[in-house]
Amino acid sequence: MNTRLTQTQSESPDLLIVGASTRAAAASARRAGYRPLCVDQYGDQDLHALAAVIPRTSEPDGWLRVLAAYSSLEWIYTGGMENQRELISQISERHRLRGCGPDSLQRVRDPFFVEQLISGHPICMAPCLPIDAHPADPENWLCKPLRSAAGLGIRLLNSPQPDSQDAQGCYLQRYQPGQPLSALFIAFPEAVVLVGLALQFCGNPVLGARGFQYCGGVTISPVTDRLRSTLEDLGTTLAQGCGIQGLFGCDLIWHSSERDRLWLTEVNPRYTALTELFELQYRLPLLAWHLGACRSFHGDPTRYGSPAELQNQLVESIKQSFPQIAKGILYARQDRCAPDIPLPEMQRDLFAVPESADLPYPGTSIPGGTPFCSVYGTGRNQRESLKVLSDRLRTYQMLLAPEGVPERAAADLLTSLLDSTEQENHFFSCFFSSEAEGNSFLEESPH
C-alpha cells in the first residue's frame, strides 16, 4: 500500500469514493464531471493523477478523522465495502450515501433471502445451505464467506480449510460448472435498466489468479430483447425486494449442457469491477446515471433523466462501431516489488481505453496472490481484443518477474482467454438460434 496523502489539488472535491481499490470509480467520476476524493487501500500512481487520496488503513479511526475535515459530500463505495454495514453507517452520518444503505445490504447480501426472493424465476439462485449442513456429495458444493468480494475465500467443500477461514462466517452453495457471466444494472425508482452482459475471468492461472479470484472480463455481444427482458425482470425483482439503488451487478453461471439455464450466484450491490468496461465500450458516463438514479429515490434534483432516456442512449451507443474491450488483472505469483513503470500522460479523451491501469509506485511491496496491475485490450472483435490483451499481459509479466515468464506465455494467455470466447459463441448459438429443437425461454421466436 502506498501511504502518500494527496490533498494538493486546487479544486475542492465534490464526490467521495471509499473502497479497497477506487481507481476505476475515480476515472468514472472524472468522465462524469466530478472531482473525486478517494479513500483507497492501494494508492496507485494513476489514482493520485485522478483524485485527492486518503490512504485506507485497516483501522478506520485515522482516515475517518481526516474525512471529518471535509464538508458533507455525496459518496459511493466500491468492492468489499458492502460487507461493512456499520462503517457505511458511520460515513453516512456526515456524507450523503448514493447507493445501497445498511438495511438494503442486509437483505441483498443474505444468500438465503435472495434464494427465496427469486424462487420460481427463470433464473434461480444456485442452491444454498447453512454451513453446518452435510451434503452427500461435498465435491459438488462450495464453501463461501458471507463477507467477501472478488472471489476471495471461496473453496470447494471437500478441499482443506485454510487456517485463517472462520467456518461460522460461511455458507454452502452448490457448485455450478460453466462460464461465469456478469450482468450490470442501474435501478431507478420506477424501473431497472440492464446496461450489459460480460464474460468474467475467474481463477485463470496464467494471470496468476488462484481458486475463484476475479481476474478480468470482456464485453459480449448485445443481447436479444427476450434475454434482456428476462434479465431485467431478474434485476427488477432483486432491486424491489432488496431496496437496491443505482448500479449493481449479478454474477451468473451458464453451462452448455443446460441449454436454457442461467444460475445466479451472487449480487454485488455497488459499482462493480466491470462497470468501466461498459462505460468505455458505450462511451457513456454510467456513474453520472448511477448518481442521478440514487438522487431520484430521495426526490433530489438531477441532470440525468429517466430509465427510458438511459435505455435510448444505450441503444444508440450499441449501434456505433466501437471496439470490443477486454481487461485482465495480473496477480503476483510470489512476493515482489513493483518495477518502475512510467505513468502515461492523462489523455484529453476521458473515454480512451488505457493500455494499463492500477499502476503501483516503484518499489511498492506486492505480496504473492495480490493484484499487480490491470491491462486492457481492444480490437474490432473479441479475438482481436484478446490478442492485444494477451500480448500486453506478457509485457507486464516480464516487467514484474522477467525470470519467471516462459517463451510461450503470450500464446498460453491467448489460448486460455479464447477458451472463454468459445464459450460465448456456444452461449449465443444455444440461446439465440432458431433451429428446430424448439425455442428456449431466452430465444427469439422465428418469423
Automatic annotation (TrEMBL):
SUPFAM superfamilies: Glutathione synthetase ATP-binding domain-like (SSF56059). Residues 134-273 form the ATP-grasp fold PylC-type domain. InterPro entries: ATP-grasp_PylC-type. One of its GO terms (molecular function) is metal ion binding. Pfam families: ATP-grasp_3. Signal peptide: none annotated. This is ATP-grasp domain protein.
